Every structure is written in structure tokens, then in C-alpha cells.
Amino acid sequence: MNKSESEKVFCISFQRNGTRSTGEVLRRLGYSVAGWSTSNKNQWTEKLFDGNYEAIFADKDFSTNNAFEDAPWFCSNVYKYLFHKFPKSKFVLLERDSTSWMRSMRNHSNGKSLGKTDIHSEIYNRQLELWNRLRAGEKIPANNGLDLSNQDQEYIRIYETHNLGVKLFFHKFAP
């Protein structure tokens, strides 16, 4: 399959939705896929949350790949920016039952938040909690530092709102 340099595929699904499997399928279809390890190595999520999108797009690993799975592509409505920045791109949204998704979130890191604590707190609207705990002098791990207990309702609301927002956005621009 011949893919032009400007054609990219972004998996914009929240984590724990089969993003890695989607990356494997895209590889089999002939795409060059940047997954979590590439994103982590290049600190794309950190750059995204610092508002430094252009540093991501200037990265050699970004330019040499044409498909992207996992973080940071589901974060902070980045799909809207990507849609306009790369107009020939395709976007993949995977969904699962919300309760099953939340169970997978809790199981992934033994009931702790996934990934970097500060970024996780921003994605899941827990910045005030994190800030108050840090100001109180609590030592919170940089990774997996928040407990997911008693968070189901809020996390599911955020998950479902993201999915709905993606669908409404692309419906607006559907041909």
C-alpha cells in the first residue's frame, strides 16, 4: 500500500482500548507505526502538555512514521489540532464498555494511575487533588502516584465525554 508522506493515521482512543493492537494491525497493513515507547523516548506527551506541539512534529521519529497509537494522541482534544494540521490524515476511535474500560484502568497499574502522575492528573481532572497533596508535603511518586479507588464515576464521565466529543467533532466535518 503506497502512503503519501502527508497521510497519517492517528489512534485517538483513550488508553486501555486496544491502541497497541491497533498499532499491530497498522504495521501489518504496511504503516510505519510510532507507539508508546517512541512517544515516551521523545517525551511527546510532556511536550504536548507544555503546549509545544511543533517540537513533536519536528521530531525525526514523527516525520519517519505515518501511524501513531496510544499517548499523547488522545489527550487534551489534540485530535482537533491534528485534523487541521494534517488534513489528509485518518483517525481511529476505539471504544469499549465504560465499566470494562475502568476495570482495565484499575488492573493495569495495581489500582494506581497510569503513567506520569502530573499528566494523568490533568487528563482526569485531578490537578487540585495533586496540588493540595503536594502543598501538604506529601511525597507522591512521579509515576503511578494516584489511587484509582472511588474514581469510577468521574473517570467514566471523562472517558465517555472524550468519545462523544470525538464523534461530534468528526460528524461536523463529515463529507
Task: Describe, in short, the structure shown.
By secondary structure, the protein is mostly helical.
Major sheet: size, sense and barrel closure? 4 strands, parallel
- Portion of residues in beta strands equals 5-15%
Counted beta strands: 4
What oligomeric state do the depicted chains represent?
single chain
Task: Report the span from N to C terminus.
Answer: 24 Å
- Measured as a percent range, the helix fraction is 40-55%
Low-confidence stretches: none
Name some characteristics of this structure.
175 residues; 4 strands; globular; mainly alpha
Can you give a write-up of this model?
The protein is mainly alpha-helical and 175 residues long. Helix content is 51%, strand content 6%. The chain has a four-stranded parallel sheet. Helix 7 (98-108) crosses helix 10 (152-172). The two termini are 24 Å apart. The model has no long low-confidence stretch (mean pLDDT 94).
Task: Describe the SSE topology.
Elements: E1 9-11, H1 19-28, E2 33-34, H2 36-42, H3 44-49, H4 53-58, H5 60-64, E3 67-68, H6 78-85, E4 90-92, H7 98-108, H8 117-123, H9 127-135, H10 152-172
Helix pairs in contact: 7-10
